[in-house]
């Protein structure tokens, strides 16, 4: 059966995938993942996040936290002290996501050698000019 006879058009596939892709893009972003990991052990203050995430600017941390809060993955609590104490904490949905990230990290660690060997074998076979030195 040809692809055209399946009744599935590119528009149908994209319409279904678009919301999923949007969520995956948000939660798999470089800074989002690092914030989720850093906040996984309980409430954490903005400055602690900033110190624990190498390379993130204050503005990017603020924007990413705001987006994670908007998505329901992080809660922001302002304590009425002077100066105000602001803490961020993962929601139950984000805790579930964190468990998934840990499984993905475990998978990557278990398979990194296999992937490195596969890349080397592929490069030797398909791009010998890069491996002839």
Report on the architecture of this protein.
This protein is mainly alpha-helical and 133 residues long. The chain is built from 6 helices and 3 strands; from the N terminus they run ααβααββαα. The protein has helices at residues 10-27, 30-38, 46-52, 58-70, 92-126, 128-131, and strands spanning 44-45, 74-79, 85-90. A hairpin with a 5-residue loop joins β2 and β3. The protein is extended and about 65 Å long. The mean pLDDT is 87.
Secondary structure: elements and pairs:
Elements: H1 10-27, H2 30-38, E1 44-45, H3 46-52, H4 58-70, E2 74-79, E3 85-90, H5 92-126, H6 128-131
Helix content: 55-70%
Strand order of the largest sheet: 1-3-2
The averaged pLDDT comes out at: 87
**Main sheet record:** 3 strands, antiparallel
Order of helices and strands: HHEHHEEHH
Distance between the termini: 47 Å
What portion of the residues fall into strands of 2 or more residues?
5-15%
Shape: extended
> Taking Cα atoms only, what radius of gyration do you get, to the nearest Å?
21 Å
Number of strands: 3
Report the uncertain regions: none
Task: Give the class from helix and strand content and strand pairing.
Answer: mainly alpha
Count of helix runs: 6
Give a short summary of the structure.
The protein has six helices and three strands, in the order H-H-E-H-H-E-E-H-H. It has 133 residues and is mainly α.
């Amino acid at each position: 059966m040809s692809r055209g006879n399946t009744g599935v058009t590119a528009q149908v596939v994209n319409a279904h995938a678009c919301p999923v892709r949007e969520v995956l893009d948000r939660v798999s972003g470089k800074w989002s993942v690092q914030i989720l990991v850093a906040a996984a052990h309980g409430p954490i203050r903005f400055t602690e996040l900033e110190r624990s995430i190498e390379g993130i600017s204050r503005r990017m941390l603020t924007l990413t936290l705001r987006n994670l809060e908007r998505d329901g993955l992080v809660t922001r609590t302002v304590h009425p002290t002077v100066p105000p104490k602001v803490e961020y904490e993962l929601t139950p949905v984000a805790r579930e996501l964190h468990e998934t990230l840990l499984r993905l990290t475990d998978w990557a660690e278990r398979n990194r050698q296999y992937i490195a060997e596969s890349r080397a074998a592929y490069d030797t076979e398909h791009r010998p000019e890069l491996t002839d030195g």
